[in-house]
Amino acid sequence: MFASGADGPPARTTRIRGALRSVRIGALSHLDHIRSYYEALNTGDTELIASHFTEDAVHYYTRLGPHRGAQAIAENARWGAANLDGKWWYQHGIEQGHEAVIEWTMTWRDPKSGERRLNRGTEWFRLRDGRIAEVRAYHHGDSRNPRGDLLGFDFGERDYTTMDE
Fold it and tell me: What CATH class has 28-138?
């Protein structure tokens, strides 16, 4: 991590919904950077989403092939926001060295039925130079447990996102 001052990298400016915000990317913790990425996901702004990644980043999934490159990752997220009314929620995270892991919740709308849905999973991140270089997204769901919830775990009691919110 870089500290503020002459030894750190120059501040970078990111456009967020028409307002300029200066962010010293190297000074953010990995989890702060990932929280910022999750906020960007919910805007559907491909430039903002892509700015969180290295150009050669790869996003792996359990249900579809990988997306390679910051722009491809951002386009997939924009598609989810626009076509599924997708919203992503950072729930909990741990970081160590150049890696971080989070639990997430995604709320979305089934395009066929219009039914509101919720999925849960975990993502493992590898970061390089203050940006996301790799995401390994784990989500399990089947006909018995399509949301991938932990069976018997009280999500509401533990202050996780639920369909009641």
Answer: alpha beta
